[in-house]
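Priority: low. Protein: Bifunctional ligase/repressor BirA. Input follows.
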Amino acid sequence: MVEQWQRKREILLALDSEQFVSGESLASQLGVSRTAISNHISTLEEYGVDIFSVKGKGYKLANSLSLIDEAQLKSAITQRCFYYNEIPSTNAFLLKHSEELSSGDICIAEYQSAGRGRRGRTWVSPYGCHLYCSMYWNLPQGMAQATGLSLVVACSLVKVLNSFNIEGLGVKWPNDIYLDNKKLAGVLVEMNGQAGIECHLVIGIGINMSMSKSQGDKIDQPWSDLSQSRSLPSKTELATALQHQLYEDLTLFEKEGLSAFLARWKQVDIFDGEKVKLLLGDKCIDGVCQGIDETGSILLKTDKGIEAFVGGEISLRSAT
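Result:
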């Protein structure tokens, strides 16, 4: 299986150019049959890679891809790093092995066959197109210590992306990252543990890097990716910077809680001071967003004064 994926990666590298590459040329370059090339191309398409195929010209990627350099990644990260070409879910992998992990250990995959977002939504995970990453963290004081943590992760994400000169970023409460008012990245935090005892925490992050039209059509909301950014980082650079920033921020969060991040949140909150509608189940609440409190609850100024809301099926929409 490792050898098969290595061959597919070699094909992707050859196709990542401005020019079409013929199947015959690929077969000669890689030392395999023309049929083998055709089979690899078909498999890559099944994994969500959008490849142009023109008779008489050959093949070319519809969108440029950035694959992880495993050696470079592992040399840049002090904690353990698990890297896979394909896996059902990076979050599920870390949760399964949580007893063996230390804070800061990460799992990264090029493809997730069962990637998940918040509220059970499917996270579209075509091979190589985006960053799919999960990080483990241990909270010795239990689940209560995790209150507001997903908002910290959102702040970490924005800080990392800003470090690569990516502009137009903001956060939609509680932890969706937006670029130019369209969703760029999502966060899924999952836990194993009970109140009052040690808690195993897994933070899953998906960042859209290069979305093809065919994959984008599967998403039921406006989306953005990093492909048009003037200073697009490599996936390896982005993953490394993200792990370092998360480790730094979660260490601070463990010591000081969410209060240490309130100022950073205010800087990136796209609804701060805006009229909004807060949907809580079948209940709709109108108000003006007043940021968050130290528990991560969203604060709304309503006819009743300043009210705090958290948890459950809450979604936020601009009143305009």
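The mean pLDDT is 89. The two ends are 51 Å apart (CA to CA).
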